[in-house]
């Protein structure tokens, strides 16, 4: 071999009559072997899948070819060029593994970006569809149709979670079902622990990256996924507050279909869908002329039942406000115990916190404020779209009266409210309500206010006392009425309280 070829920075092999006659050191390093002088060229190179090099020397003379191939035994990509000569051929070889790795990384990143952009557009499309959805069924249909018919996934199915029986019920499927979806349906009927069931039970998404190899997946489902080329699954529970409404199962043909970005986007979708389901239930209750009033018995799973038993007190719910972080802030009238003792006892009751005295009427009466955690009966009732009418807790005995839309599932709510089992239903009745007109509301308010209160409130309103900045001061309004400033403020506070009581449907206890 010419000394210039021996010193070349790439591998050079001289081949005559199909046999290696010379090989420089870079070629031996690339081939990860001793110099193959005297060996057939077909044996000098490790075996590749395509076997392009041996074919180049199959004929009476070497073929002029160039190619890049992967050689598994040395785990390298090699760039090979065969240059025929008059009496010998020259083979140039170079290790291009690093270049191939970079190309694959760039392609993977480009594919992930494209997939993320397409998914973001798809999620936006789904969310747009949720805006107009009027029921849980419509919301589930929107999600599965947009996901199941997308090029990103094979199919998507949705299921409804039945709380009282702990069952999953398939509500629909969209996309290429193949053999995989029938296997999913069979597993649901058999009660097997598929990813979607685990997602519902644990109230968080479940990802399976390799369906056919994951031992936690039923064998029949793994086999069906392998036959259909389905590789990964993402199970998304539809959750709002303490309630799980259902689940979405999304099946894809690649293991890389659910990146961190995709999972985060799906989790946002699941939260918004759960919120949308809850909102549709609330809208039904508000728009319905007929309501169902149900009285439930609450057990020790309610922290307020435990609190009343701990203090040997009667607690009556006056109203609730949703807390900023999680749970529910409750305002309770206390009877039969010192309000201060009730507040002190809150610290020892699990899922209750932030107790404080609002008003202490005497040693056995008053009003307290308590915040409940998110997984308690009262919160569950509110999250399920129920309107809490009354709730009483008396020395370990609890009664909760709620209003539901006519098509709401009483059994499902009972399952959520109960501890070891469904909460007992003590009474149930359907009633028809008529809307209150603006005039009727004003007449009701006028009946609550005294003449002086009504005059003071209207004068202050028309004098821009309630605007910011104020058009009139309290002294100016009082002077126009011929009363003192303190008397004006007394009338305004009393009338404002009655107005708020009328709005929040609370009884006016002051009588003033």
Distance between the termini: 114 Å
Fraction in beta strands: 25-35%
Radius of gyration: 37 Å
Q: State the helix count.
A: 18
Number of strands: 18
Mean pLDDT: 85
How is the biggest beta sheet arranged?
A: 8 strands, antiparallel
- What is the 3D form? elongated
User: Any low-confidence stretches, pLDDT <50, length ≥5?
Assistant: 507-512
What level of helicity do the residues show? 40-55%
> Which sequence of strands runs across the widest sheet?
14-15-13-12-16-17-11-18
Structural category is alpha+beta
Describe this structure in words.
The protein is an alpha+beta fold. Helix content is about 40%, strand content about 30%. An eight-stranded antiparallel β-sheet has the order 14-15-13-12-16-17-11-18, with helices on one face. Strands 2-1-5-4-3 form a five-stranded antiparallel β-sheet. A five-stranded antiparallel β-sheet has the order 7-6-10-9-8, with helices on both faces. A hairpin with a 5-residue loop joins strand 4 (about 75-85) and strand 5 (about 90-95). Helix 7 packs antiparallel against helix 9 and helix 15 (about 440-450) crosses helix 18 (about 485-505). The longest helix is centred in the first third of the chain and has 35 residues, at about 95-130. It is elongated and about 125 Å long.
